[in-house]
Amino acid sequence: MRERGSFGSKIGVVLATAGSAVGLGNVWRFPYTVGENGGAAFILIYIVCILVLGIPGMVSEFIVGRHGQSNAAKSYDVLSEDRPKRGIIIPWKFVGYLGILTSIIILGFYAVVAGWCLEYLCASIVGEINGDAESVKNYFVSFSSDPLKPVLWGAGFILITHFVVIRGVRKGIERASKLLMPILFILLLILVVASCLLPGSIEGVKFLLHPDFSKLSGSVILDALGQAFFSLSLGTACLCTYASYFSKETNLLRSAGQIALVDTLMAILAGLMIFPAAFSVGVNPDSGPSLIFITLPNVFTQAFASMPMVGYVVSIMFYVLLVFAALTSTISMHEIGTAFFTEELSLPRRKSAWVVTIVAGIISVFCALSVGAYTDIQLLGKSLMDFCDGLTANFLLPTGAMLTCLLVGWYVPKQTVFDEFTSEGRLKGSLFDIYLFAVRFVCPICITLIFLHQLGVI
Fold it and tell me: What is the model's pTM?
């Protein structure tokens, strides 16, 4: 039997798994959502959502992965086998299959946006996107509608991810995470300081962090729930796969808390980078791709107009940050499928990685073309890119997370879950009953609300 990889240190566990959560969404969705929904008031609600949904959900996927010590499909199967064979036998391995499918689809369309970041990084270095708002917008439209450039950049990003993953867990994933995550944090801090030193930047800080409880509503709470769910990569099988490389000494609850803390801190810092600079030049930033590819390049140009060299450096650092944030996420998405093909089909790791790279690359090509040169590439009236995004966010991710809660909370014997929660008796497990209650009742209710909110039902 092929020897499995494992993380070599506690810091490697936290940085690698946090890297899977920290991504482009921290930069283009979280800050805007916070600003528009009560500032610090939303952050408080978000932290509560992390505690009641995010951390219990993470621990549940950790339990599946570490208990199974295998790829996602096998891990779900192994954990479910701990229940005595009576009554209806449920093929829980299909939850793992669902996660693997989801991760490859996400890798495909996520690489398109990551490829845009690479293009903008290169354009920033050669000074192609310094200009007024209209020229920046025209640059994005021209680039994204090109039939070749977005395809090549997206494929290139998947290949970069590929060459990290083929090196294995310790030499590839863990080593890359130990390098990328600290650099990501340092870049964020530098950009936050530069942004907050701009004239009038204090208004942006107030906009982000001033608690406005009058804006809190049911919809805001649902947005916070959704942000907590998607930001921590619940339902992708990523956490399950990474947990299969955890040692039995790893404290699952503590690790989940540390990862959630890192992810939240990165998101708040992203807001402190964006809003002070935007307010200093009188721009109210929007959300989504237009924020980082149209609005912010113009913001940096205006904000540092009197110091063009500083603006030039800040622009480069910003897109380096985006590339690194995207890479930590794509590495985790790639590893899910690579681990599966390696262990289930007994393929060498390199060949397994190529399978994922090729499949995700094909998805990436068609997604890039569907929002650019060939907008008639559609499914159910949506561009392929939007269709893949909607399919994963609205259906596959909530389904995977819900089934995980049902498996861990209700199907598997309580003692098995307790043994994993306490690292086989190494920990006291004083919070186990609270955790189990959350997984059995709170998490399923929250996931159902997210599902209905994503569909526009509530």
Answer: 0.94
